[in-house]
Design a protein that fits this description.
Strand order of the largest sheet of chain A: 10-11-12-9-3-13
Shape of chain B: globular
Low-confidence stretches of chain B: none
Strand content of chain A: 25-35%
Oligomer: heterodimer
CATH class of chain B: Mainly Beta
CATH architecture of the largest domain in chain A: 2-Layer Sandwich
CATH topology of the largest domain in chain A: Gyrase A, domain 2
Number of strands of chain A: 19
Strand content of chain B: 35-45%
Largest sheet of chain B: 6 strands, antiparallel
Number of domains of chain B: 1
Number of strands of chain B: 9
Mean pLDDT of chain A: 97
Number of helices of chain B: 3
Mean pLDDT of chain B: 96
CATH class of the largest domain in chain A: Alpha Beta
Low-confidence stretches of chain A: none
Helix content of chain B: 10-25%
Structural class of chain B: alpha+beta
Chain lengths: ~375, ~140
């Protein structure tokens, strides 16, 4: 059975091209992928990302459990902060990537903490089962609120100005990767989070499903400073890829290491708590890894795609492309690939095989698009 | 979606137009492009590559590639023939405007002109009714 978000009929009414993604019938684009992409970079776009999964972890040892399963250090999170992290498996791979929110404790008993883990829709069941293996050692409750929770990502440099009239919360005061629980568009207890996966700033709004259509209609009815553009998963992919952000299932998976994937910055090996594969990652950090995820641009008009082989100058296969697209901002084909460490330095060249055609590729610095250069 | 009655279609979502032109040695010339359905599925096209000009390409073999932002797709030859011409309005060396395929897939967005080798293959193409059925339109 294909699942749907409460906004499915809105997407269809807007003429969206729908596709099954992670079991949900989701909008891939509404009218034009590149226009949606540019709207987010220059103005503001709105994504329905309600398919994402949300788990609440609550209890006297909630922090201890999160520390036990998460690669990043949740101990540094004050209430109102969020962080990007991973759920490593025991074999040096990644079960999922996620956001960890430290929630207010107004709904908690004395001495309890509360967190929200936001995970990929395709991994909700796998993540749940994985976390359960560790949960019984801790005095916590885990609640899967994915089915009741809607999520809009309002992204772009004009998101703040667009949304501010809808709320008394001073949006300017919410720093990047911080959030406030407040009232917006007349809906109480919305998590207003200065996060997103586009590199263009903006907010993510977590609401109960019953309030989602109303919130969407209110936001899509706004006209100042600009009308928001509905944006689909296609633009979401090109936006994240220009930032070099990993997509689970493409660039990272159960077999890739956080160190290989360049996610050492969310892998806090010095935190006191153990977490799955901590020893493996520590050894990789000390001894080095044999392959690395790199960003590359292609000197051709052909576009690299997930799964295309990477070859050295002698034609020997040495790696694989994990993501690729035609960058709407830079108008060049670019991608991410796992290559041997010897090929990972900036300006190293290799070839990407598009069928029988050889594309010349060069390693470049990530992000491809500097967020500070954007409006 | 628009599917002209006077064209023939393939399961790979290409169309074939039979022109009244022939080569000097009497081979029939056809125009080939991709259908309205195909351009809609691919989305905005950013680059078209045809590197088989002058080659005789067998039916169902790849004669080129289309790049959209989100996907790459091969172009398959509907009928065996010699690739005479690649639409210069679309090609990189000419107008470099692959968006013509999105805006006018059966007109300005034609892709190649081909001189047929074996006209008996024509019977293997689909009429508009069968193609509409294939794409559910």
């Amino acid at each position: 059975m294909i699942l749907s978000t409460p906004l499915e009929s809105r997407h269809i009414a807007l003429g969206a091209k729908m596709t099954e993604f992670a079991g949900y019938n989701m909008p891939i684009l509404y009218t034009n992928l590149q226009e949606e992409h540019h709207a987010v970079r220059k103005d503001v776009g709105v994504f329905d990302v309600s398919h994402m999964g949300e788990f609440i972890v609550k209890g006297k040892q909630a922090l201890d459990l999160v520390q036990r399963i998460s690669s990043n250090n949740a101990g540094t999170l004050a209430i109102g902060h969020a962080q990007y992290s991973c759920l490593p498996n025991e074999n040096g791979g990644i079960v999922d990537d996620m956001l960890v929110y430290r929630l207010p404790e107004d709904m908690c008993a004395a001495g309890e903490q509360a967190f929200m883990l936001v995970v990929n829709a395709s991994n909700i069941k796998k993540d749940w089962d994985h976390i359960q293996q560790y949960a019984s050692d801790f005095d916590t409750r885990i609640i899967d609120i994915s089915d009741q929770t809607g999520l809009l990502a309002v992204q772009g440099p004009k998101a703040l100005e667009l949304l501010q009239p809808l709320t008394d919360v001073n949006l300017k005061d919410i720093a990047y990767y911080h959030f406030v629980k407040g009232t917006i568009a007349g809906i109480d207890n919305v998590i207003i989070s200065a996060t997103g996966y586009t590199g263009s700033g903006g907010f993510e709004l977590y609401v109960e499903n019953k309030d989602l259509v109303g919130l969407w209609d209110t936001i899509m009815g706004l006209e100042l400073p600009v009308k928001p553009v509905p944006a689909g998963l296609g633009a979401r992919d090109t936006l994240r890829l220009e930032m070099g952000f990993c997509l689970y299932g493409n660039d990272i998976d159960d077999t890739t290491s956080v160190i290989e994937a360049g996610l050492g910055w969310i892998t806090k090996l010095k935190k006191a708590s153990t977490f799955p594969s901590k020893d493996i990652f520590m050894a990789q950090k000390t001894n080095g890894v044999t392959k690395k995820l790199v960003g590359f641009i292609v000197d051709d008009r052909r576009v690299p795609r997930h799964g295309y082989p990477v070859c050295d100058a002698d034609g020997k296969e040495i790696g694989v492309v994990t993501s690729g697209t035609m960058s709407p901002t830079l108008q060049v084909p670019l991608g991410l690939a796992y290559v041997p460490t010897a090929f990972a330095a900036l300006d190293t060249t290799f070839n990407v095989m598009a069928g029988s055609k050889m594309l010349r590729a060069r390693v470049v610095k990530l992000p491809f698009v500097d967020p500070n250069s954007l409006p | 979606m628009n599917f002209p009655d006077d064209l023939k279609y393939t399961t790979e979502h290409e169309w074939v137009r039979f022109t009244d032109k022939k080569t000097d040695d009497g081979r029939r010339i056809v125009e080939i492009g991709i259908t309205d359905f195909a351009q809609g599925e691919l989305g905005e096209l950013v680059y078209i590559e045809v590197d088989t000009i002058g080659d005789t390409v067998a039916k169902d073999a790849v004669f080129g590639t289309v790049e959209a932002v989100k996907t790459t797709s091969d172009l398959f030859m509907p009928l065996t023939g010699e690739v005479l011409e690649f639409n210069t309005e679309i090609s990189e060396d000419g107008g470099d405007n692959p968006g013509l395929i999105n805006s006018d897939p059966y007109g300005a967005g034609w892709i190649v002109r081909v001189a047929l080798t074996d006209e008996s293959q024509i019977d293997m193409l689909m009429g508009v009714g069968a193609y509409r059925e294939l794409v559910g339109a």
